[in-house]
Amino acid sequence: MHPVLFHVGSFVVPSYGAVASLGVLLALGLAQVTSRRVGLDSRHAWNAVVLAVFAALAVSRLTLIVMNLGDLRRHPRWLLAVAMVHHPLLAAVGIAGGVIAVLIYTRWAGLPLLEMADCLAAPVCLGLAVEQTAALLAGSDFGTPVTVAWAVTYTSRLAALWSGTPLGVPLHPVQAYAAIGSLVVAVLSFAWLYLPERRGDAAGVALVGIGIVVFITEIFRDWEGRGVLPGGVADAPQLVGLGLVVLGGAVLLQWRVVGPQRVK
């Protein structure tokens, strides 16, 4: 595939960063629509998405720097490549940082949590779909070897350098599977906002849907560095996926908070 979108001399624009940035813009645009539907000021949706993105980037990059501080002291120029490195641990830490940032902002602004969750459900899923498209181009989060007609083979040395992608080996385009699944969940979450459901239902649908997508697509990913359980029964992202399904189910069942129905 194409880990580099284009370059001018020594200035390189990586495909992952460029396409993922497009995903953020699309999520911001969709959040302006969903915020009006749930009765939130669109400014709060904008602020929450931007804050989550910056928090995710900052936390993941700082984690990478701390984990490799000794090497970076010996080779300071490696700091220039920090933005190019992708790893499942960094993604998990970044997502956690983004979620915490949104929760803090929601509480600080005195906003209803379920409405904010409904507002961000479809935009986040859309952003994830675009992010996985970016991962497909970059070769990060790659799949297992396979001999099917739709397999993808990476040949760029930069894909191996930045993401550890095996070169010259046909792999499952698992990023495409995840992108399609996330896009379907985004459409469902968005459509759910126009049904006479209770507060939090769109968020619950998104949590269950993304949890299922994560669990299934992990079957086709390379598990190296993903926290495989003893016996190889599952990896850490699959456990997270199961957790999302349980959390989403709890939200849909309204075990703790039964909110009024949204206007039809």
Outline the secondary-structure elements.
Blueprint (H helix, E strand, L loop, with lengths): L3 E5 L2 E4 H24 L3 H26 L1 H6 L13 H21 L4 H26 L18 H7 L10 H19 L8 H17 L18 H18 L11
Antiparallel strand pairs: 1-2
Helix pairs in contact: 1-2, 1-5, 2-4, 5-7, 5-8, 7-8, 8-9
List keywords for this structure.
264 residues, mainly alpha
Q: Sketch the major β-sheet.
A: 2 strands, antiparallel
For the biggest β-sheet, the strand order reads 1-2
Report the sheet-strand fraction.
under 5%
Evaluate the radius of gyration: 19 Å
Total count of helical runs of at least 4 residues: 9
> Which blocks of ≥5 consecutive residues have pLDDT under 50?
none
From the helix content, strand content and strand pairing, which structural class follows? mainly alpha
Shape: globular
Number of strands: 2
Order of helices and strands: EEHHHHHHHHH
Number of domains as seen in the coordinates: 1
User: For the terminal residues, how far apart are their CA atoms?
Assistant: 46 Å
What does it look like?
With 264 residues, the chain is mainly alpha-helical. The protein has one domain (4-253). It has nine helices and two strands. The chain has a two-stranded antiparallel ribbon with strand order 1-2. Strand 1 (4-8) and strand 2 form a beta hairpin. The longest helix is centred in the first third of the chain and has 26 residues, at 42-67. The relative contact order is 0.13. The model has no long low-confidence stretch (mean pLDDT 84).
Give a quick precis of the structure:
This protein has 264 residues and is mostly helical. The chain has helices spanning 15-38, 42-67, 69-74, 88-108, 113-138, 157-163, 174-192, 201-217, 236-253, and strands spanning 4-8, 11-14.
